[in-house]
Amino acid sequence: MKIAQKSIKFLALALLVLISATSFASSTDKKHDTQNDGGRVNSKEEISDYIKHHLADSHDFTLFSYSNDAGERKHFGFSLPVILWSSKGLVAFMSSEFHHNDDGHVLVDRKGLKFAKIHSKIFELDANASTVSFDETHHATNAHKVLDFSITKSVVGILIAGFLIFFGFTKLAKQYKTRDIPKGFGRVLEPLVLYVRDEIAKPNIGEKKYRKFMPYLLTVFFFIWILNLMGLTPLGFNVTGQIAVTVCLALITLVVYITNGSKDFWAHTLWMPGVPKLLRPILAVLELAGFLLIKPFSLLVRLFANITAGHSVVMGIAALMILLKSQFGTVGATGISFFLTLFLTVIELLVAFLQAFIFTMLSALFIGMAVEEHEHH
Amino acid sequence: MDIFNDFSIGLFALQLVILIVLLILLAKFAWKPILNSLEERESGIESALSEAENARKEMQNLQADNAKLIKEAREERDAMMKEARAIQDKMIADAKEDAKEVTASLIAKAQASIQQEKQAALAEIKKNVAELSIGIAESVIKKELSNKKDQLDLVEGILKDVTLN
After folding, report:
1. Cβ within 8 Å, pair B30-A243
2. What is the pLDDT of residue A53?
3. Is the pLDDT higher at A43 or at B80?
4. Quick one: which of A104, A239, B37, B80 could link to A118 by a disulfide (CB 3.0–4.6 Å)?
5. Residue B70 has pLDDT above 90, yes or no
6. Who contacts A68 (Cβ-Cβ below 8 Å, separation ≥6)?
7. What is the ipTM of this complex?
8. How much is the pTM?
9. Rg (CA), chain B
10. Chain A interface, mutation test: which of B16, B21, B26, most A Cβ atoms within 10 Å?
11. Nearest C-alpha of chain A: how many angstroms from B49?
């Protein structure tokens, strides 16, 4: 019964992959490429735009899109709520009202305000404007961005990851009430928890103090890992490649290690002993900059850049299928891009874990630096 | 792509809220029970191992004790055997000694009684000889004492004999 359920799930997923892949492939088969040909991606610029569009957050959850025989663009997926803080307060509507338009041509009226979506950002039009006008660099001239608290695709991804982690680990926690050694999926999760504890927390923070930080380290590790992995599925999430997400993660790490800094840590940071007094203020500035800016910045940029680069490269290599078609033919180009993409995706699988590990490791290391107490004073 | 333009405050805020809520929920319902049970299990395993080690040591001690006991018992037995042998030897020796003494005393008694018998026999013989001599002397004297000179010679001769005797 269980196996049957699993295979059904797997089949559904495989079908999903297949459908999205075929719709993508079929759009490349036809040879007419005008600018507005219903979402076909043929030229280098279109590919670049497509990748940029994927990397950005989205207000719709589109699983795949296709063009029907009449040339109409059809999207398969579901719309998500848009929640805005506009000049007239809170505004909420479903993203379907934009009709998948992403260049500001479809306007949504709420509370006498007009909203347009331009490159995955929502703009509020100025009071007297009726349509969005653009300058030559394609920036809106008569609209401004609003605070956007929408449940975007990334937020959905975060929620899904949160639910997965929560249900997975509460189930594991419950198992310990009746048995010493978990069974089923818990047996997979337990070594991961032990790994974070024994390989990340204990060596970097120390036997005495690691306990307090375990919940944060475990949460962050699984959060990043699951989201990285979700980014590799055909669902097309790119959560850990959103700068806002990595900023948030790095900021929490910063807050954790600053609020838990020991007396010794602050003494060493602000007034380094054993150094000429003249140098101490300079060192203090350097140390403070290191702990408050450089370390969190390196954390957030590393994760963001790795995931963004990974997605860009995988999509770029997949696009070789289109770009190499004239040289190698459809089969040759597809074969080349298939194997390269497969290879890169396997590497990305490793990177997904590695980045989660590095983020957690460095967080633990910084926390360890902050809570360390020097016994020789 | 402009990173700062891409930064969405809304996404940041939602992520912050969700992550903190998730952290609190997980800490309470997942991490704490999991880590506690893991630690409990580990300390359980550790104590079980040390108990096993203790039991092994105890076993070894017991075995050593047993060996010691066996050795002691064997020594004791050896000592007892040795003692018994010594006693036996002594008894035999004593018995021999006693036998010898008894024999010696028997022989001595026998000799004494022989001596006595001999003395008695000798005395008897002497008595008989004396009676015989007296008889002979009587008859000789009766016959010889007819002259004086013969009497004197006789007395002289007897005296001579007596001195020699």
Report:
1. no
2. 81
3. B80
4. A104
5. yes
6. A74
7. 0.80
8. 0.73
9. 64
10. B26
11. 16
